[in-house]
Design goal:
By secondary structure, chain A is α/β, with parallel strands linked by helices. Chain A is built from seven helices and 22 strands. Chain A has two domains: about 190 residues, FAD/NAD(P)-binding domain; about 130 residues, 3-Layer(bba) Sandwich (FAD/NAD(P)-binding domain). In chain A, a hairpin with a 2-residue loop joins strand 21 and strand 22. Chain A is globular. The chains are: A alpha/beta, B alpha/beta.
């Protein structure tokens, strides 16, 4: 029987892993299970979609014919609900099971709404998927002002594209750090200047307290300081959480994400994780840490894929600093505080 | 980009409600202003065991042909849905039952078989139906709810259709069906719309969804039909079934006879007695009627026979389509036995063509065979309600002379002899299947036979003005002349339009009257074209061979047999290589 590889998640890590496996093993079966229904795309490019500079077909990770050419089975629109480690099966939400010899968890992470703002969730816009981006793009012509709360890539990227589109943007960050993973102080200052120069009203050390819909599509946002901002779009991020809840009862060891060793293998043999859902031990800080960003994901996916398919295991080289494109500029960020 | 048209196929087993699903989608789409074409495929057995498929093409433009491929599959039965996947468009969307009750292996799972460009959406159809109604029935309505959400269509038109369908079954049934639809609609936020339908133009005049059999039912009633006699046969049975309900309301009668021979006999008798009458059958029945149709030719008795073609020969493919009965319609009589052969090209046209058939049959005292097929007879489409209103009445050329001078077969310039109803006081009415003289008395001498034969043929020249002339589209000086007839014309027309866009020089001819031929018009068209191509859905090239023999022309024959209506893409592919550039 042909070896069967299952990859959960068709982000950058999953696709890199599939390519790496195929490069080693020509005959095996590779199935990628992806919850989204769109063809795998770069999330980092969603800002360009909002700006209307790129259409959905222009931000694909691989061209449409790649999956057929590489003999990959792409299972879009399907969700893994559990994993049987001993049975070597993943169970899908449609009551189907897929057998695997090796499994890669590459489900990425999701943006979480800060706990104190969850009750306002119906009023909050999200900016994680292609549909979010298209929705915002379509709303732009009538959007005058927006309030964004958070300090991650998504908040900054949304601020960048909205202000570029002529929207009056207020960016609220609960502390003086402007990016996560953290920037060194000088880069943080540089970013602060970039944000201000762009015409964004930056409010540091404050937070959203209440969101009220005044009229349809018009919100009044009250900050802890008592200040109120009226706007047509409210976005609030409280950071990221790896998408690993489906592994809860599997026996695979989880912290925030899937705990993996230097080879990106989890505590269970033959089950790997890569990208924003994997936690890797970092000797400098003496703890496990989620490494964000698609350059990390690509590298981890590639290493995990080779380790899944190959006989000799390869360690992941951990970089100390790497450049991230933040607010349209290349800035160096650490993965940890 | 939003599409101008999409095709939705529903596939299930017996009792899954595939056909009802197609009808629900189509009716809602028409309320939204779209044009629809519904094509159902089902097993030949009377009680279905196998796969039933309903295909709805929804378009912002008028549609008369099946699409090249299916864009959305609703699988009400996963085993059948897996079989259908290979027939779908490469980027099709699949809605399937995601909670079959047990965990299945990959080899039994719908998405496993879906291509990489396809998007399968698992929806717990049966589970939801069970939860809402306590029964498995209604999973198709859940699927339609999800489909409406997927396509970004509003709920209201669907609610309206459910009301029209279920209110008469009681408030409870209606509210359950609305709840089933709403559950499907709310099942999941659609993250990214892969398939979007262009908004329909605002609905203009009232449109109704009808099949060819339905349209011909209205046409017959409105053409003063008094007697229908028939024997059930797919795909014509529905016409009799409809008339059995409708006709008595207008004072007419419907007789189900013991076979087709008796049916055509009863129709002959009714016309003989001066009443408008018709029968409807399919290939095997038409074979049985041949002898009495010939009697109609000889006795100059009007007859109207609707022959809904299916795959043959013999019992053949009862639930499939073919245009292979042209030969028997034209030539299925011994002796020199001319008869009118008409063939509407779509459902809407079948209304007017059947009414023409009555008028011509009566005015010119001749059998008229109207060839439809399973595609026209049993598919459904949206048509303006107003086209089903026209009424027709008697076209009989009454005898007005002195009773003693009446000659049933008087030789006239047009070939038509004035007519009276047998039994009219003072008039001696004589007729016979034997060759006869003008009085109707048997007469075997050669000059009489020649004169009478000539008279019977002469009528066919006179009637041309009362029959639909060939219709041409495209440049008059087109290098290529593409001729087509019957239901495949829709696909041919759409295919030729694509070829025009590719720059080919084509003139298109729709032939609704097959016999008699509008000879002057056709001869001129053949002379102007450098190449003639005849496209039809049979293996023999029946129209092509008829035209070649009749006009002495050479023509390329494109045969598209196969049991399913051709698609525009198939036509384009088959025609393209033969075109002069």
């Amino acid at each position: 029987m042909k070896r069967s590889f299952v990859i959960v998640g068709a982000g950058v890590a999953g696709i890199s892993a599939a390519k790496a496996i195929r490069a080693v093993e020509r005959e095996c079966e590779i199935t990628i299970v992806e919850e989204g229904i769109a063809f795998p795309y770069y999330r980092a490019a969603l800002g360009e979609v909002v700006l209307g500079k790129k259409g959905p077909e222009e931000i694909l990770i691989e061209p449409l014919d790649f999956y057929d050419r590489a003999c990959l089975r792409l299972r879009k629109g399907q969700r893994v609900v559990s994993v049987s480690v001993s049975g070597r099966y993943v169970y899908l939400s449609n009551n189907e099971r897929l057998r695997f010899d090796a499994l890669l968890v590459a489900t990425g992470r999701r943006e979480v709404i800060p706990a104190h703002l969850k009750k306002y969730a119906p009023h909050l816009s999200t900016f994680s998927t292609l549909e979010d981006a298209l929705k915002i793009r379509d709303a732009l012509p009538s959007l005058k002002a927006a309030l964004l709360r958070g300090k991650g890539f998504n908040a900054l990227e949304l601020a960048r594209v909205l202000v570029k589109s002529g929207v009056q943007v207020t960016l609220v960050t609960p502390d003086k750090r402007l990016y996560y993973p953290a920037l060194p102080d000088d880069e943080n200052e540089h970013l602060r200047n970039l944000i201000r120069e762009a015409g964004i009203q930056l409010i540091e050390g404050d937070d959203v307290n209440r969101v009220e819909e005044k009229n349809k599509g018009l919100y009044s946002v009250e900050l802890l300081s008592g200040k109120t901002v009226e706007c047509g779009l409210v976005f609030a991020s409280g950071g990221f959480a790896p998408n690993v809840s489906f592994l809860k009862n599997s026996g695979i060891y989880l912290n925030q994400g899937v705990i993996v060793d230097d080879y990106l293998q989890s505590t269970e043999e033959g089950i790997f994780a890569a990208g924003d859902c994997a936690e890797i031990y970092h000797p400098s800080i003496g703890r496990y840490w989620v490494n964000l960003g698609h350059p990390n994901a690509a590298r981890q996916g590639e290493v995990a894929g080779r380790n899944m398919a190959g006989e000799a295991m390869e360690r992941l080289e951990i970089e100390k600093m790497r450049p991230y494109t933040i607010f349209g500029e290349q800035l160096y960020a650490r993965w940890w505080d | 980009m939003a599409r101008r048209q999409i095709t939705i196929q529903t596939c299930g087993g017996a009792g899954d409600g595939s056909v009802a699903t197609g009808a629900l989608i189509a009716r809602a789409a028409v309320k939204l202003g779209y044009s629809v074409l519904v094509y159902d495929t089902f097993p030949a057995e009377i009680r279905g065991f196998g796969k039933t498929i309903s295909e709805v093409r929804v378009s912002v433009e008028e549609v008369t042909a099946r699409a090249d491929a299916v864009d959305v599959l609703i699988g009400l039965n996963n085993v059948f849905a897996i079989e259908q996947i290979k027939t779908l468009a490469e980027d099709a969307v699949i809605i399937y039952d995601s909670l079959p009750g047990i965990t299945v292996k990959e080899s039994e799972s719908v998405p496993h078989f879906a291509g990489n460009y396809m998007s399968p959406y698992g929806v717990p159809l049966e589970h939801t139906a069970q939860r809402v109604t306590g029964r498995k029935l209604g999973k198709n309505v859940v699927a339609v709810g999800f489909l409406a959400k997927l396509l970004g269509l509003p709920k209201e038109p669907f609610h309206q259709v459910l009301k029209e369908l279920f209110l008469r079954k009681g408030e409870k049934v209606l509210s359950q069906n609305i709840a089933l639809f709403d559950e499907g609609y709310a099942y999941e936020e659609v993250e990214y719309r892969l398939i979007e339908l262009e908004k329909a133009p605002p609905p203009g005049e009232e449109r109704v969804i009808i099949s060819g059999n339905d349209a011909m039912t209205r046409a017959a009633v409105n053409a003063s039909l008094a007697v229908f006699a028939g024997y059930p046969i797919t795909p014509a049975s529905k016409l009799m079934e409809n008339l059995a309900k409708e006709l008595p309301r207008y004072g007419g009668i419907v007789v189900q006879t013991e076979d087709e021979i008796a049916a055509i006999g009863a129709v002959t008798g009714a016309w003989f007695a001066g009443k408008r009458a018709m029968t409807a059958t399919s290939g095997p029945g038409l074979s049985l009627m041949s002898e009495i149709i010939n009697l109609g030719v000889m006795t100059e008795t009007p007859l109207v026979i609707v022959n809904a073609m299916r795959g043959g020969p013999s019992t053949g493919l009862p639930t499939k389509v073919e245009q292979a009965d042209l030969n028997i319609a034209l030539w299925g009589g011994h002796g020199d036995s001319p008869r009118v052969v008409l063939a509407p090209t779509n459902i809407a046209e079948s209304y007017a063509v059947l009414q023409d058939a009555f008028d011509v049959a009566e005015k010119y005292q001749t059998p008229v065979i109207v060839l439809t097929d399973k595609f026209i007879a049993m598919s459904h489409t949206s048509v303006p309600a107003s086209i089903l209103e026209e009424k027709r009445g008697s076209t009989r050329l009454e005898y007005t002379g002195p009773p003693e001078a009446y000659r049933r077969f008087a030789i006239t310039e047009t070939g038509v002899s004035p007519w009276v109803v047998p039994g009219t006081p003072g008039i001696s009415y004589t007729t016979s299947g034997l060759e006869h003289d003008e009085t109707g008395a048997p007469g075997y001498d050669v000059p009489n036979h020649v004169a009478m034969t000539e008279k019977r043929f002469r009528k066919f020249r006179a009637m041309l003005g009362d029959l639909p002339a060939p219709v041409f589209e495209g440049p008059e000086d087109g290098k290529n002349l593409v001729v087509s007839w019957g239901s495949s014309f829709g696909a041919v027309e759409e295919g030729v339009k694509r070829l025009w866009n590719d720059g080919y020089s084509i003139r298109l001819c729709k032939m609704t009257t097959i016999f008699p031929q509008h000879e002057d018009v056709m001869r001129g068209a053949f002379e102007r074209a450098e190449k003639v191509i005849v496209v039809e859905q049979n293996r023999f090239g029946q129209l092509a061979k008829f035209l070649k023999g009749y006009y002495g022309i050479s023509a390329d024959e494109v045969h598209l047999p196969g049991g399913e209506p051709p698609s525009p893409g198939e036509v384009t592919e088959a025609v393209k290589e033969r075109l002069l550039v």
